[in-house]
Amino acid sequence: MKDTQYVALSARIRAMEPHLITLERLERLMEASDNQGVEKLLQEWGIPAFDVTNPTAMDQTIAQMRGDTVEALSFGLPQMGLLDVFSVEYDYHNVKSLLKARAMGQDATRMLSSLGRIAVATLVAAVETGEYGDLPSGFAQAVAEATQVLDTTRDPQQGDMVLDRYYFAELAELASTMGNQDLVRYVQLKIDAVNLRTLVRTVRMGKPPVFLAQALFAGGSVDSDVLVTIAQNGGAGLEELYQASGLETAANLGVAALKGGVMTGFEQACDNAVSAYWDFTKLIPFGESVVLAYLAAKETEYLNLRIVLLGRGAGLPADVIASRLRTSCL
Question: Are residues 151 and 100 located together in one domain of the fold?
Fold first, then answer.
């Protein structure tokens, strides 16, 4: 795809960027004196009215916002596959929810999202019947393997690990197929961030190296064997490994966490590194990467909005909520 095919859409995105919910706007939400003030601010920013004290209503509204974003970008998008980079996650989220609900004898309806590539009804039928013919072949294999692992081990974490492995493999394949090197590097960074987080958590919990080796995902820029060796050495060499990678700050905080420091800042730094990847698109007038950066910024917006509203509902101080917010690339 030639970047010039994205001139019109990129111009439309630049016009939408000022409407993103920035950290400054989120501060106004945190400082609002009551819920009516929060609802008024949200409506001023074009967000549909909903009861901000109701988590279900909040999730439904955020899902609607995601749907509106996809619809807005679909019009005139030369390569629709770009949207799959962000929608594929919801397919895996849905099957995780369905498998766990099935194992516990519960209804997963409230946890399901309509924003994936696969219709919810199709996925529900596949999980209920064990017939995966209507699912994409790679995804069907993921569901079948996760189902077998969960049925055998009764351990939701093991099932999630199987699905996450397929998710990142599919994401890497999708990025490669799209032929956009910015996207390829973005996916590598996502995998690096997840693997770094897994390493720190594993060492803190005192898990054996074999557990870490099974929990790491292929496709990142750092080899899994190197990470296992660092874990065996108690994290020694972690800071040097991630120098000039985008994850420098996260790695430094990870070392501090291994020495007994808090995990919150480390987890936040991992997410911020992934979000900040698209900062360079501010200097690009048009192209595929402009679309991808906007989608990434919107995902950060949804996450931050959820953090603020749930934090307020839980009665958390504004400074505590602020410490959990993620930075955006736009």
Answer: yes
What is the pLDDT tens value at each position of the chain, 330 positions in all? Answer: 577 888 999 999 999 999 999 999 999 999 998 999 999 999 999 998 899 999 889 988 998 898 899 888 888 888 888 888 888 999 999 999 999 988 888 888 888 888 888 999 999 999 999 999 999 989 999 999 999 999 898 888 889 999 999 999 999 999 998 888 999 999 999 999 999 999 999 999 988 888 999 899 999 999 999 999 999 988 888 989 998 889 999 999 999 999 888 898 899 999 999 989 999 999 889 999 999 999 999 999 999 999 999 999 999 999 899 988 988 887
DSSP character string of 44-58: HTTPPP--TT-HHHH
Q: What is the DSSP string of 60-76?
A: HHHHHHHHHHHHHHHTT
Report H helices in 155-180. 156-178
- The residue out of 136, 153, 178 marking a domain boundary is 178
Quote the distance between the C-alpha of residue 212 and its chain's center.
21
- Note the pTM of the prediction, 2 decimals: 0.88
C-alpha–C-alpha distance, residues 199 and 213, integer Å:
9
**C-beta of residue 217 within 8 angstroms of C-beta of residue 165:** yes
Answer yes or no: do 84 and 170 share one domain. Answer: yes
Same domain, 130 and 192: no
- Within the chain, residue ranges assigned H as helices are 7-16, 23-31, 35-44, 55-74, 81-104, 120-129, 137-153, 156-178, 181-205, 209-215, 224-232, 238-241, 248-258, 264-276, 288-313, 318-322
If one counts the domains in the chain, the total is 3
Final residue belonging to a domain, choices 132, 157, 178? 178
Q: Are 10 and 285 in contact (CB under 8 A)?
A: yes
Structural domain boundaries enclosing 257:
185-277
In order, the DSSP letters of 280-304 are GGGG--SSHHHHHHHHHHHHHHHHH
